[in-house]
Amino acid sequence: MTLPPPAPPARPVFRAEGVTRVYRTGAVEVRALRGIDLDLYEGEMVVLLGASGSGKSTLLNILGGLDRPTGGRVFFRDTELTNASEAALTAFRRAHVGFVFQFYNLVPSLTARENVALVTEIATTPMRPEEALERVGLSHRLNHFPAELSGGEQQRVAIARAIAKRPDVLLCDEPTGALDIATGAQVLEALHSVNRDLGTATVLITHNAVIQRIAHRVVVLADGQVVRDEAVTDRLQPADLTW
Amino acid sequence: MVRALDRKLLRDLTRIWAQALAIALVLGCGIMVLVGAQATLRTLDLTLAAYYDRARFADVFTTLKRAPRFVLEEVARIDGVAQVEGRITTLALVRVDGMAVPATGQVVSYAADGAVLNLPILRRGRMPLPDRLDEVALSEPFAEAHGLVPGTHLGVILGGELRELTVTGWVLSPEFVYALGPGSLMPDDRRFGILFMPDRAVAAATDMAGAVNQISLRLMREADARQVAAELDRILAPYGGTGAHDRERQQSHAFLTSEMHQLSAMSTYAPPVFLLVSAFLVNMVLGRLIALERPQIGLLKAVGYSTREIAWHYLKLALLIGVIGIAAGWAAGFWMADGMIGLYAEYFRFPFVIRAANPSALVISAALALAVAALGGGRAVWQSVRLPAAEAMRPPAPALFSRGVLDRALEAMRLRQTAVMIARSILRWPGRAAITLFGVSASVAVLVMSYFMFDSASLLGNSIFGAANRQDLTLGLTEPAGEAVLLAARALPGVLKVEPGYAIPARLVNGTAERLSAVQAHWEGETLARLVDDRGREVALPPHGLVLPEKLAQVLKVGPGSWLEVQLLAPPRETLRLPVTAVFAQGLGQEAHIAAPALFAALRSAPQVSHLHLSLDTSARAALDDRLGSLPAVSGLIDWAEVERQFRTLLRENLLTMVTIYTAIGMMIAVGVIYNAAQILLSERSYELATLRVLGFSRHEVAFVLVGEMMLLTLVAIPVGWLVGTWLAQGMVSAVSTDIMQLPFAISRRTYALAGVAALVAAFGSVTLVRRRLDRIDLVSALKSRE
User: Fold this and answer.
1) Are B134 and B162 in contact (CB under 8 A)?
2) Nearest Cβ partner of B417 from A64, A87, A118?
3) Residue ranges per structural domain of chain B
């Protein structure tokens, strides 16, 4: 079953203008991003595709306020992030961004519920941890520690943790990279429903091209530049993906 | 050619240099105390031995009333006696410029034609000429304190007559290494000095021509000092012998050995604490280092290194840390010995110092340090190198947490999740938390154990000056007198109140146990000089019988209800049998006490007075001093305000130096422990903590997880340290107590507070150092790298 195209995009959540990022390690200079122009809109789900070293993660980190560009400008709505202070970036992440990583990054000493509570305790209008976990289908695993959960379950806890504060954007770096097909599909399903039900703008990094079919739009990076940016016309439900 | 593996070792060490240094310094502290105290002891030992030998310090000493010189021949015939020296000694008042009250001088005669024992060692000028009656050599500290250079004239009241003497030289004597004036608590070079004069001059001044009142003996190697002393007492009984004693009871020597005893106690008590803490630290740090090196261990095994080779490789790292600790400890130990010998030189006067290390202390400390390092490292090494190569190359399984009763308790407390992380980390690794807790509490304990000495000393001071001795002045009389002397004293200028005092030298005997001591009589209703215990509480004297200090009762093996034979060693020289009616704890002093009516009833005599306690109107002090300077009946005086001032000054000066040193040492332990624990915590959880930053936690909020755990453990450790410190202090009290002085046991709130604050500061400082690394953590790379 294919999904309808998204409603016409309202206004950009993120705007990147000519963003570059250069890393210097000793004498070596690595140009990770070479002038990226990109807008991301409210409610949109975008898949960032590209080979290793194409600059996907660097771009995601800059959008998420974990890193600053070397050149160009980055806006979150009307706020410029380009030269924001460390404290301002922390406040930005705290208020607006939900992160999901390849290796889940759960705190091993906290249970599923507590990992989510970790974030709801510092958010302004969070949902209850139990509600967030219910959204990812983990109501029955509230009191389990990460080591007692499967990889897919751990990643879904990470998603619950990311959405519990009702973020404006969800940034996911290879969320299914460490998972097999079935569990990967479950995780994608969770992300998909969050995007659909809460309208959270979602950016999803993957180098698995199949996954682009669940997005509204796919942006392909190569060598630090956007080489393709197009809407997905024949969207699929995560459960229908095969790879 | 350095092997590749050794190169890796050195690089590992440079990488963890701060942690290794922290351990080495803790280890070094223990070694420093051991080596320093032992080197000081050895130096004192060798110096004393050489000094005693060179100055022919006698083995047996006795004082008597007066004996003709020919008695010396009979004494020389006692079996085992090698040499005999007889002389005259008496007290004199010395008028010194700039001092209102005359100083007390102990006049000692010496055989100008060739003394054989207790030779004064000339330091400056010359000895008085044998036939001069007006020349004197002074003890160096006294002369130095007043600038009495050879050629200076000195007014001395000797034999009830003011004489003008000329100083010819400065000397030191093995009998007066620790020169304590009559009634003094500590040496006072300004108020007490030794005056050496030719025997003719002293005999003439004291009307003792052809007689002696002090005899010293040097024994043959195999002689039995006790037997010789008994024989000597028998011979001297008709001449007013006050009981012969060996070196152990010679005042200067007794103080020296008492000091050395305390030093030796210190060197046994402190080092084990440090060594134990270092062992745990080595274990903790090496355990972590090896955990990080697991893949490399696997690799080394895979390429063919044997388990033994790998284990030895890591053990070498532990031993290397030990070696650094040894080097630092030895160096600091010698430095400490130097400082302590300098400190001792202020109270103990030696003509020379033979500096020496104690080789066995060096060997033992090195062996202990290496053993501690090997033991601490061994466990960590063993756990890792046992793993099969393939397993070692895989990262360790993640820590498993599970819910238990404690988790429900945590939930009930509704803590923030960062607080829950702290609690779980402690509960998940209780062993590691215990090491941290143990280390910090050891630091607090060491501080309590060091600081409490000042509480005890100050309590002792309060007891001596606040409760026991409230008189302004104590006058010693040349001869005991009847109670009429009280009226005469009352008539002196400025005297508000006079109370009598009486003390008589005595040998206390209970079967084979005996002790040279004195019996002190106390009058009912005394308010100036009272008998108090070590906490300043008045001791009520029963109407009959003796009251003994605990230590003396122990030596004599008596208790309330026992009977003691009391041989009085001064007129009337009777032997009494008196019951012991009570025993009490006394800080300073080893005399038996008795109610005056009971003593004089037993002696069938009218009450006698040997010294007077005066309370004064201070405005008339100058007039009184003037009168005292010319009173032949007064043989010496104690100015209690002055004694107290000295005591407090000594305490304060020592306090400043020792508190600084002990605080540094104690804090060193806390720094070593917390720095290492925090460092390990950070390296294990940097991934987790970086995640928190990514999730939007501020630096402070993330640092809370690290700082909070360390400070929580520190807070828990402090009361534990107080307990352990109190326990150690109790052990210390009995270890440092000597015949001469028993410290009362007291720990003030200030001591506990200081120790706690020092540990808190040290812990917070070290965790802050580590926190700086956390603040600089690179979020992106921390997220990418999983160990």
Assistant:
1) no
2) A118
3) 56-253, 495-616
